[in-house]
Amino acid sequence: MIRKASRERRSRVVLALDLEDPDRGKLMQRSMDVLSAVAKHVCAVKLNRQLVLALGLWGGVDSIVNTIHEFSLPAIMDAKLNDVGHTNEFMARSYMDAGFDALIASPITGWEGGMDSVFKLAESRDKALIMLTYMSNPGAQTFYSMQASRGNESPKPMFETFIEMARQWKAYGLVVGATRPEIIRRSRELAGRDMAILSPGVGAQGGDPRAAIGAGSDYLIVGRAIYEASDPKKAASQYSELTL
Ligand code: BMP
Fold it and tell me: Residue 206 C-alpha to ligand 1 middle, in angstroms?
């Protein structure tokens, strides 16, 4: 879905729709307005807790997911699943039931009793899983670059192990921050061509869109630089052009 939308719209931009408003009605309306304005210039839409916590999954976010689908775009839930199996499975099933096509999960739980149930569920429902591999914030390197060894293997940065696990588990893709092109380059080397790399961190967080794409990202996740712009449609279109 994302590849098709990306080709048709000539855009590698994933909209992060993280709007905030204490008034539910206004939040819903603004979400729909931003979606309609930018839909032709993005290839997917990612939602996060801002909308889920404020609107609720049922009778709120589910209708936003329907609208995303009406624009023939995939809906990604940035769930950052990171719990024991049965809780992960409950969250994953709820988001899938609400119509999401892909979920973001953290590989730090490991397989057994952590990610195993989520991958099994995703396979049975034909949904995609995207693994949080290297975050975009300045402090991320403390852990994502930490040298650690599995069993008798020699130590390597944690994110490299995450990529090995994501490949082994047959994840659809990786989230790697756009703020560190050298990490994107290394991630691409390890991930091979088939795995998608999605990169947040351009615009408000200072990452350079061209550098991220040049280093091997497939898609840029962009939030505030689009929805806080005075003309979100124009901003989305400009980001799309930057990434062609
Ligand atoms: P913005 O473009 O406004 O900075 O938003 C980026 C989006 O990507 C947010 O939804 C944020 O939660 C998410 N994100 C991120 O910024 N860095 C990461 O490493 C992982 C993320 O999911």
Answer: 12
Distances (CA, A) of 218 to 67, 105, 152, 153, 174: 24, 18, 34, 30, 10
pLDDT more than 90, % of the chain: 97
pLDDT at 243 over 90: no
Interval 106-115 mean pLDDT: 98
Helix (H, G, I), strand (E, B), or coil: what is residue 222? strand
Please tell me whether residue 58 adopts helix, strand or coil conformation.
Answer: helix
CA distance 233 to 129: 28
Position 198 confidence tier, pLDDT thresholds 50, 70, 90? very high
Residue to substitute in 38, 221, 222 for testing ligand 1 pocket (most ligand atoms within 8 angstroms of CB): 221
Q: Which residues contact 59 (CB under 8 A, 6 or more apart)?
A: none
Give the separation between CA 188 and CA 184, rounded to whole angstroms. Answer: 6
Distance of alpha carbon 129 from alpha carbon 91, whole angstroms: 13
80 is catalytic: yes
Tell me 60's DSSP state: I
Q: Average pLDDT of 92-121?
A: 98
Give the pLDDT mean for 134-142: 98
